[in-house]
Specification:
Strand content: 5-15%
Shape: elongated
Structural class: alpha/beta
Number of strands: 11
Order of helices and strands: EEHHHHEEHHHHHHEEHEEEHEEH
Strand order of the largest sheet: 1-2-3-4
Largest sheet: 4 strands, mixed
Number of domains: 2
Helix content: 55-70%
Length: 368
């Protein structure tokens, strides 16, 4: 298990895949919901042209096995959908940090928004296209009469849900694919900043509509999606504003200069006394020339003998140049193990530290 979730042991197309802790709750819930409605689903599929005898599918352990198979297949379909985004983003030089499967489906976390004009729309639209193509493939196989019984049931369920996944993601709301397509197309005449504001306003309208419909129909899952769309849409607008604020700015403008640093020869007890007066989340360890050796987390200081050397608790250091582009540094900061980066000059000397709190403070100062 990673700090965010459980990392799968394989990397499709080189992309790490993680299971959020909420996945452990939603997968059995979906399996139960599907399994408890096998007969109803069979009737629906019959109306669509797939004739299934519901009796054997609803007997004994069969419905629960079908429910589990369909639920796993559903999240596998979501993974394929997100892989479509990741593969096309790679064409535009954008790396995918990870794909996470969670309570509301899945998300591909890209290093950056594709900057080429119209590229975001292409990366976004490939998700619904992938889901639609998967639905069409499954439906074609079903119509061939090669499959029956439980296999046909699971295939029919996945054909229908993939079609629904494609259509739902086309809603013009950030961060759904339709919202990203809308923003990318609006950016052609309006520019990125104004396009994001307009797309954010449309997202709020869609979120309200989803919330009202979910409330009137007592669909808790739809209410959760509505809240997510609203929060994520606002976050997209805020991120766009931050990107504009970062343009042309350097790390030294936002860093905290002259961080509290320690020598590797200190003992744990010495650093504990320092922590009592200068409390920080982590302390950089420097050599005699002021170059970084590593980090010591404050949370690690209460373990071990007070006379033990700091080298026993040393963690790898991550540095960033003082004159490096601030936006690039912030993206690195989001994935930094220590939650902060040491800022160095060209000669390797540490001159500051860049933490998330520093970035927030800098943005607030600019806004004020």
């Amino acid at each position: 298990m990673t700090g965010r979730g459980w990392r799968l042991p394989f990397r499709p197309f080189g992309v790490p895949v993680e299971l959020d802790p909420t996945f452990a709750l939603i997968l059995p819930l979906f399996a139960w919901l599907i399994g408890s409605q096998v007969a109803g689903f069979a009737e629906l599929f019959a109306q669509l042209g797939v004739d299934l005898d519901p009796a054997p599918l609803s007997t004994g352990a069969a419905p629960w096995l079908l429910g589990a198979s369909a639920a796993i297949g559903l999240f596998a379909s979501v993974l394929v959908h997100e892989l479509g985004h990741a593969i096309v983003a790679r064409v535009y030089g954008v790396r995918t940090q990870r794909i996470t499967l969670w309570f509301l489906g899945g998300v591909a976390q890209l290093d950056d928004v594709p900057r080429k004009r119209g590229a975001e729309a292409i990366v976004a639209i490939v998700g619904p296209i992938t889901s639609g193509a998967l639905s069409l493939l499954l439906w074609t196989l079903l119509r061939s009469d090669l499959f029956g019984g439980g296999v046909a049931f699971v295939m029919a369920y996945l054909a229908v849900t993939n079609a629904g996944l494609a259509l739902f993601n086309l809603l013009p709301a950030l961060p759904l694919d339709g919202g990203r397509v809308l923003r990318s197309l609006l950016a052609l005449p309006l520019g990125d900043a104004r396009a994001t504001r307009v797309a954010g306003a449309v997202s709020r309208v869609v979120a309200i509509a989803l919330g009202v419909y979910g409330f009137l129909t007592l669909q808790v899952f739809l209410l959760a999606i509505a809240f997510f769309v609203d929060a994520a849409g606002r976050a997209e607008v805020a991120a766009s504003q931050a990107r504009r604020a970062f343009e042309g700015r350097r790390v030294r403008e936002a860093m905290t200069p002259d961080p509290v640093a320690v020598d590797l020869g200190w003992s744990l007890e010495q650093l504990r006394r320092l922590r009592a007066f200068r409390s920080h989340t982590a302390y950089p360890v420097l050599d005699v020339d002021g170059a970084p050796i590593g980090w010591i987390r404050a949370s690690d200081l209460d373990a071990g003998d007070g006379e033990a050397p700091l080298a026993d608790l040393l963690r790898p250091v991550e540095t960033v140049g003082a004159d490096e582009d601030l936006e690039t540094a912030v993206r690195r900061l989001a994935a930094a193990d220590a939650g902060r980066l040491l800022v160095v000059e060209r000669d390797g000397r540490v001159v500051g530290v860049l933490a998330k709190a520093d970035v927030v403070r800098w943005l607030q100062q600019r806004a004020g």
